[in-house]
Amino acid sequence: MFQSYTIKDIAKALGLSTSTVSRALNGSYEIGTETKKLVLEYAEKINSRPNPIALSLKDQKSHSLGVVVAEVANTYFSQAINGIESIAYNRGYHVIITQTHESAAREAANVQHLLSRHVDGLLVSLSSEITDLSQYKYLHEKGFPIVFFDRAAPDIDTHKVIANNYKGAFEATELLINTGFTKIAHLTNSANLLISQDRLEGYKDALEKNNIAYNAQLVKHCNHGGMVHDEVEEAIKELVNLGEDRPDAIFVASDRLTTSCLATLKKLKLKVPKDIAVAGFTNSDVAELFDPPLTVVRQPAFQIGQIATEMLIKVIESKRPVTEFSTETLDTILIPRESSIKVK
Question: What is the value of pTM for the model shown?
Answer without folding.
Answer: 0.81
